[in-house]
Design a protein that fits this description.
Elements lengths: L9 H4 L10 H8 L9 H15 L4 H13 L8 H6 L4 H14 L5 H17 L5 H18 L3 H14 L11 H13 L17 H10 L2 H13 L14 H9 L9 H21 L17 E2 L7 H11 L10 E6 L4 E6 L2 E6 L7 E6 L5 E6 L4 E6 L2 E6 L10 H5 L3 H20 L1 H10 L2
Length: 449
Amino acid sequence: MQSEYVLLCSPYRYNSVLANPVNKKFVEKELMSVIMPGVNITTRNMLQTMLETNYGITDYSSLKEEIDKLEDGRYHALEDVSSFIDGIGTPDVKDFYLSLNSLTGSQLIKGFDDCRIIDVLTKSYATRLITKEEFEELFTKQTERIKNSYQTWEQYLASCVMGKLLQYVPSSETITSVEEYVVDVYSFCIAPTNVFSYGTFWANHELANLTAFLENFLPEEIVKELKSVQNLVNYNDKIPGLNAPSNYLIAYFDEKYIDTKLIDTSRYEYLSNLADYVFWTPLVENNLEWLITEKNLKEQDTILLPAEFASYYSASEFWDCYKKYPELHNEHIFVMFKGVFSINVIFTEEAAYSFKKKLFGKAELARTPWNQVELNTSLDLEFKESRIHFDKKVISDVSPVISEICLNENTLSSLNSNERKALENEWQQKMNEFLKGIPQRIREFKGKK
């Protein structure tokens, strides 16, 4: 799900748009997607903890309560902005606040609260604390209100900065510091591609005045550093950098002493987009990854993908195994299923490959075109087993994360056999529909090339 209104929480959505090249594809993926890139079972739990720690948000009711507080300004640490500015004794500092305040219009420090409203809303939906219907209800109401409250992006962002400066709380692992927040807004101001031009609800997205004010406010060395990064990057529609893995995945490779040369950078972007479109995004959108991803996501994933959708370990294992099948590279490998000791099945654009064992020697690849592939699921909640079968052979066997569908041991044990079987059948059918749709999604993806 994409919406240009997600740009309203852009200071929280991406640390610095100067870290990577910015074009339309980047904006749509990183800044306009309601479901943040990289959300999986592990990160979802981290986001849930953050929302509960910072705001007490655990469900729809508590989310709505916090949004009402933010909308009403009940978090304001300072009500009288004019008196605060009048009391500033340092002329340069006073001039900065007067200049910034002049850009905010009548909104003053309200933008920071509005920015947080969209941030907690999208995060609550990404963590499944609220349903799609509940999200759309709140999101529509708030974005319409915000759209009608400001006239330009500069006014909104100036109000965001003013609010952050005057509603200061100590930074922590889950709370962005004042400097980080302001630097992130400034990086949007000087990015060669104005990401806010993708938002149509405010026609004016010029940021020249805000840029000048922030340059006077930020330490000179930070401004120089950001501008030096800005000048190093070539921002065109065709950007070699987009073929590279994320900085986070590279850092994981370095941490684990894995050779980054394993990654096929010439195909990385294509394979990642293919895996995302055909496999990962529909898996997440249908709340099915709990059936296929291990409870412990550290180093035992059964599903391997080219990017860190499931985990960094999953991606590193994908590329380690990828090098072993050069004969399949032109067919574009986008998913592998790993057993205890070796790969069980490989999915490419053209076919699914299993292995025929030999009495002596290396097992041979057995090719099954997608129009002949048969995949199905079995779920046993009593014995905690979730399996995917390919041609009657088990290719994925995990202990499902039942907490993802609001189950625990007590509620599970309270179900009688018929209730449990009905629940198993419901999720098996959903997973089977997802698996059955793989060939069609491959055709759709190839048609978009």
